[in-house]
Amino acid sequence: MKTLIQHGTIINSDDTLKTDVLVENGKIIAVGENLNATNAKTVDASGKYILPGAIDAHTHLEMPFNGTVSADSYFAGTRAAACGGVTTVFDFAIQRKGMSIQDIYQERNALCKPQACVDYAFHVALTDLTDAVLDEFEDAVKAGLVSYKLFMVYKKDGLMMNDADIYRALLRSNETGALISVHAENPDLIDYYTEKFLKSGKTSAWYHYLSRPEFVEAEADKRAIHWAKSANAPLYIVHLANAEGMKAVEQAVTEGYSIYAETCPQYLHFTRDVYKREDGRNFVCSPPMKGQSSQDALWEGIRKGFIKTVATDHCPFTSEQKDWGKEDFTKIPNGCMGIENLYPYMLSEANKRRLSFNRVVELCSKNPATIFGCTEKGAILPGKDADIILYDPTINFTITNDKMHSDCDYTIWEGTELKGYITDTYSRGRLVFKNGKFLGEAGWGKFLKRTKRKS
Ligand code: URP
Ligand code: ZN
Ligand code: ZN
Predict the structure, then answer these.
(1) Alpha carbons within 13 A on the beta-carbon side of 247
(2) Domain check: are 29 and 126 in the same one?
(3) pLDDT level of residue 454 (50, 70, 90 thresholds)
(4) How many domains does the chain have?
(5) Which residues pair with residue 151 across a beta bridge?
(6) Range 418-441 average pLDDT
(7) Which pLDDT value is given to residue 124?
(8) Relative to the alpha carbon of 335, which ligand is closest?
(9) Looking at the domain assignment, is residue 444 inside a domain?
(10) Residue 236 C-beta-side C-alpha neighbours within 13 Å
(11) What's the pLDDT score for residue 382?
(12) Which ligand is in closest contact with the Cα of 150?
């Protein structure tokens, strides 16, 4: 069965075109006027924008972390994704001691596959970098596992990698075409501050920020960039949130290095002031929201093209879980939600003329597709998967948790007013969201076998 989407305006990263889109068997088969659409179902997109589905390159669904498990299952998280125009989700498959890359993938895929409502892939998060794992990189990359994440923090959670292992992984990525990403913060400085605050009874969420201020993140950004330059390897810095780190990325990119910076909508919208609120613990994530000058630098990084992607770091914890840290910020599980808010928020900022719609598509769809080797995604073009969003720029939408599709009982985005909203999401040609209603199903989403980077 063919579907013809008519009378809308296509927005790709490099083009805006008022024309029609023809879909068949999950693929976009043609774009243009007067398409041969005999027997096609027609969809009227008058007044709407037709966008490629977003790729959320950073989520943590049912992730064991901080002594608990994040609140969204793969079903709930990918349902919320579909309802926010996200048609591909990159989750983290985290290694436990002794596991091979194949073991890590198999274990996580068995959990995700029956639940996924949209397409998905995994970044493999390594915590135990043995020689056997380094040897396995080549075959793993061939099998479509092309991206790896290394934590420079979370010592007590057993996730942290030492500097030499991060460097070894970068060297190996150079040989195999894998891409290494890092969570960059300085763990020893965090420990120093945390101990100091706890000793003097300073335990509110505000001290979560003060134990990981701007320079604690910037120092680690610079160290990681230094290693990547020396190893002649590309580097993807996840959830960049500080001005000094942004400057370091700009300098390295200007010198010709492949340093990709990702930021998240929460860093673009909230500042550290949220930690002074009564519900401050709900905003506890790492790195924390920073000051206004860092937020300004991130927007400037987007304007200049040094921020390459915006992804969510979606890692919700319920009020009950967050309340464990009511009296002690170190007991608050780290993570915030956003999978359903990423695309609507960024598109709303475009609608308010802060950036162009094309740039939003570039940041949320085209660039993650290119950087992480999703050749079938990222544009409304013949041959691509029919991951298609219809967006009505005239709708006013206020985010409230009762309209969201996550399993969490609150949202940090409560009350945020958006200009314009998504009305329809198609995942490989199948309508999975329409006018506020989820229409998809568990098990629809496919694992994406990706191709390695070219450079
Ligand atoms: O606080 C966060 N960001 N939680 C999820 C794990 C991570 O560091 O990305
Ligand atoms: Zn992180
Ligand atoms: Zn994360």
Answers:
(1) 11
(2) no
(3) low
(4) 2
(5) 160, 183
(6) 98
(7) 98
(8) 1
(9) no
(10) 26
(11) 98
(12) 2
Q: Is residue 111 part of a domain?
A: yes
Q: Which atom of ligand 1 is nearest to the CA of 153?
A: 8
Q: Are residues 30 and 71 in the same domain?
A: no
Residues 47 and 167 placed together within one structural domain of the fold = no
pLDDT single digits (tens) 362-407: 999 999 999 999 999 999 999 999 999 999 999 999 999 999 999 9
Q: How far apart, in Å, are the Cα atoms of 98 and each of 128, 130, 132, 228, 409?
A: 7, 8, 10, 26, 36
Q: Find the CATH number of the domain harbouring 424.
A: 2.30.40.10
pLDDT digits (tens, 9 = 90+) for 25-53: 999 999 999 898 999 999 999 999 999 99
Nearest residue CA, atom 2 of ligand 1? 335
The two structure tokens encoding residue 65: 């972390």
Which residues does ligand 1 sit against, CB inside 6 Å? 60, 183, 285-286, 313, 315, 334-335
CATH number at residue 111: 3.20.20.140
| 243's tokens | 């001005």
Ligand 1 pocket test, candidate residues 285, 322, 336, 337, most atoms within 8 A of CB:
285
- Coil/strand/helix, residue 432: strand
Q: How far is the CA of 182 from the centre of ligand 3 (A)?
A: 10
Same-domain pairing of 416 and 306: no
Q: Which domain holds residue 44?
A: 2-51+378-438
* Whether 200 and 338 share a structural domain: yes
Q: What is the pLDDT of residues 224-233, one digit of tens each?
A: 999 999 999 9
The residue nearest atom 7 of ligand 1, judged by CA position, is: 286
Positive or negative: CA dihedral 271, 277, 282, 285: positive
- Burial of 36 per CB tally in 10 Å (0-12, 13-18, 19+): exposed
Nearest CA to ligand 1 atom 4: 335
Q: Is residue 434 in some structural domain?
A: yes
| One-letter amino acid of 15 | D
Q: State the distance from the centre of ligand 2 to the C-alpha of 239, rounded, in angstroms.
A: 7
> Residue 237: nearest ligand to its CA?
2
* Amino acid present at 304: K
Residue ID of nearest Cα to ligand 1 atom 5: 335
Q: Does 452 map to a domain?
A: no
Q: Strand pairing partners for 55?
A: 88
Residues 121 and 184 in one domain: yes
125-149, pLDDT tens digit by residue? Answer: 999 999 999 999 999 999 999 999 9
Confidence band of 452 (pLDDT split at 50, 70, 90): confident
For 146-184, write each residue's pLDDT tens digit. Answer: 999 999 999 999 999 999 999 999 999 999 999 999 999
